[in-house]
Amino acid sequence: MAYSVQSKKSGKTYILHARKQVLKGGQQVTLYFFAGEAKEGVLDALPEGYEVSENEKTGLPLLRKIRK
Questions:
Q1: What is the dihedral of CA 25, 65, 30, 9, to 10 degrees?
Q2: pTM for the structure as a whole
Q3: Annotated domain spans of the chain
Q4: pLDDT in tens, 14-44
């Protein structure tokens, strides 16, 4: 089951995805993003150490690291 979040502002459901990206220096990073429909790279759970917040103006969900 894909991890999804419902926007408090618009009521629309967003699904969490991940993608590996290679930077110019050769370093590989993982990009996390929300999309309106399920595509390649769907995640079943939140990554360890991250939490979901919502942009107050647009209602779009954001994934951010938990601050200690």
A1: -120
A2: 0.87
A3: 4-65
A4: 999 999 999 999 999 999 999 999 999 999 9
